[in-house]
Amino acid sequence: MTLNTDHYARCIETLESSLTLLNGAAPESIEFEIFRNAVVKGFELTLETAGKLLRKALKAYTGKPRDVDRLTFKDLLRHAAKHDLLTVAAVERWFNYRDNRNSTAHDYGIGFAEETLALLPGFIADARVLETTLRERLGGDA
For 28, 65, 73, 102, which has the most beta carbons within 10 A of its beta carbon? Predict the structure, then answer.
């Protein structure tokens, strides 16, 4: 099985660039609000893309791909650790990222955005590690 991580890598790059633009904007400006919205949506997209790639990756480790399709996101992360795609410590952090993401369905306020922004440096680092791991293990160029 070959896994293409190009889109995921681009999501991470876009998220990081959006965060840089946000950090350079004046806090009371409309640009700040635009970039904050972009960062939150970029976080959501990157997290969901990671989940889809992990689901595809785990199918390479099982004889029952449909079982992988039925896994919850957190179970998907646990299985990724079993197959050394994530460390146990990383899984705990990814649980945090997922819990934060689930909050977006209920809270779009400034408090939520600030919580998300606080997670981003670690999330971007973890997302890059996952992308590298998936590319090296299952990428077509390996």
Answer: 73
Q: Which residues make Cβ contacts (< 8 Å) with residue 114, sequence separation at least 6?
A: none
Q: Which sign, positive or negative, has the C-alpha torsion 74, 79, 85, 87?
A: positive
pLDDT in tens, 104-138: 555 556 666 788 889 999 999 999 999 999 999 98
The length of the chain in residues reads 142
- List the Cα angle 98/100/106 in 5-degree steps: 115
What is the pLDDT confidence band of residue 43, given thresholds at 50, 70 and 90?
Answer: very high
- The alpha carbon of residue 18 and the mean position of all alpha carbons in its chain are separated, in whole angstroms, by 15
Q: How many CB atoms lie within 10 A of CB 22?
A: 22
Q: Span 6-138: which CATH code?
A: 1.20.120.330
Q: Which of 112, 107, 116, 106 is closest to 46 using CA atoms?
A: 116
CB within 8 Å of 113: residues ≥ 6 apart:
36, 40
